[in-house]
C-alpha cells in the first residue's frame, strides 16, 4: 500500500468520492505552498497555484515517486544540472546515466536506483535539468558520497556543473506520510510551467526510470569463478584447497596464530574517547576486527557481543554483520571438532579443559561427518553457485532442499579469502 493512502481523513463525507488528507496548503517545513494537486484522489499541497502548474508534468512527477513509496525506506536527493552549451536533444542525460548507474552500483550494489528529471530553459541560455535521485535508505543514510559521485559523473559526461540545493535530501519511511508530503511539496517545483515555454516542440521535457539491483558479485569472486566453473563438472581436475585459499587456513589447522589484523583491540581503540560529547562512542572499524577475533576464539554471537560491551544491538548488527555472524560460529565449532579429534580424549574432559560453556557443546562435538548426499550439495554449492554470489537460501530454492537443514553444512561466508570451505568439510 502506497504512502499516499495513509493520508486519508476518516472524517471525509461519505457522499464525496474525493479523499481529503489532513495536510492543507500553507507553510510546511518552512516552505510556502500556494496550490494543490490531486493525485489518486488525494489533495497534495504544492508550490505553485493551479494556473502555474504543468498538469501533465506534475502527474508524471507524482507517479515516479509513488512507485518508490512502496519500499520500506528510501533516500531522495535533489540536484540542479547545468550545461556549458545548448543541445537540441537530451543526450547529456543519457551520457550522464551511463556513468552514474555504474558508479552507484559499485558503491551501493544492493540498492535500487530510481531517477526523475525535467528539462528547463530560459530565453537564450543553455538548458538545465532539475534532477531527483532515489536510492534504498537501508543501503545509504546520507548523500555525502552520492553527491560526489553525481558531481563527478556530470562533469565527466558534459563538462557541466552541479548545484546542490539547500537541505536537498529527504529520508522517507513507509510509515511516515509527513516526510513523504514534505518531499512531494519540494519536488512539485519540477511541475511548474515557467521556463518550459521556450523548449522546442518534439524535445522530451521529462524522464524517469527505475533500475533493480543486480546480483552482487565481488570482483574477487568473479575472477575466481571463471577458473572454478570451467572445472566444476570434473572435481578430480581441480585442486580444491588452492581454489579458496584463506587467511585462516593455517590457524584452523593449528599451524599459526590468528593474523595480527584479527588481534583484540584495546579499550581505547574500541571506544573513541576524543568525542567528548558522546560518552564511550564506539569506533566500529575496531569493533568489527575485535568481533571477528572474539567470535573465532569464544564463539560469541552478535547479540552476546553487544551485551558484553554495552552497545546498541541494532547498531552492532548493522556494523558487524558484514564480518560474518553465523558463519564465524560454524568455523568456531568446526575448529573445536578438529581439535577434539586430535586430542583423543573424552568429550567431558575436552569441554572442561577448553571451558566451553555452551549448552550445545557436547552435541556439537559428537556430530557425525556429513553424508555423501550433503557432500554432493557442498561441492555443488561452493564450486558453482557461491562464486557467483548465490546465498544459501537461493541455492536451496533452486535445488528444492530445506534451508534450515542445509545451513548445518552450507555457509554463505561474507567474503573470499577468509577460509577455504573445503578445509571445513570433514569437520562439519
What does this structure look like?
The chain has 428 residues and is α+β, with helices and mostly antiparallel strands. Helix content is 40%, strand content 14%. It is built from 18 helices and 12 strands. It has helices spanning 55-68, 91-107, 144-158, 177-187, 219-230, 240-243, 249-252, 267-270, 284-298, 302-308, 313-320, 326-343, 347-354, 361-365, 372-385, 392-399, 403-406, 421-424; strands spanning 27-28, 31-32, 35-39, 42-46, 73-82, 113-120, 128-136, 161-163, 169-173, 206-211, 271-272, 281-282. Strands 5, 6, 7, 8, 9 and 10 form a 6-stranded antiparallel sheet that branches. A two-stranded antiparallel sheet has the order 1-2. Strands 3-4 form a two-stranded antiparallel ribbon. A hairpin with an 8-residue loop joins β11 (271-272) and β12. α2 packs antiparallel against α3, α9 (284-298) packs parallel to α12 and α10 (302-308) packs across α11 (313-320). It is elongated and about 90 Å long. The two termini are 44 Å apart.
What are the key terms here?
single chain; 428 residues; alpha+beta; six-stranded antiparallel β-sheet; two-stranded antiparallel ribbon; 18 helices; 40% helix; elongated
Total number of strands:
12
What's the number of helices? Answer: 18
**Strand residues, percent:** 5-15%
Radius of gyration, CA atoms, in whole angstroms: 28 Å
Helix content: 40-55%
Class of secondary structure makeup = alpha+beta
H and E string: EEEEHEHEEHEEHEHHHHEEHHHHHHHHHH
Determine the mean pLDDT: 77
Main β-sheet description? 6 strands, antiparallel
Alpha-carbon distance between the two ends: 44 Å
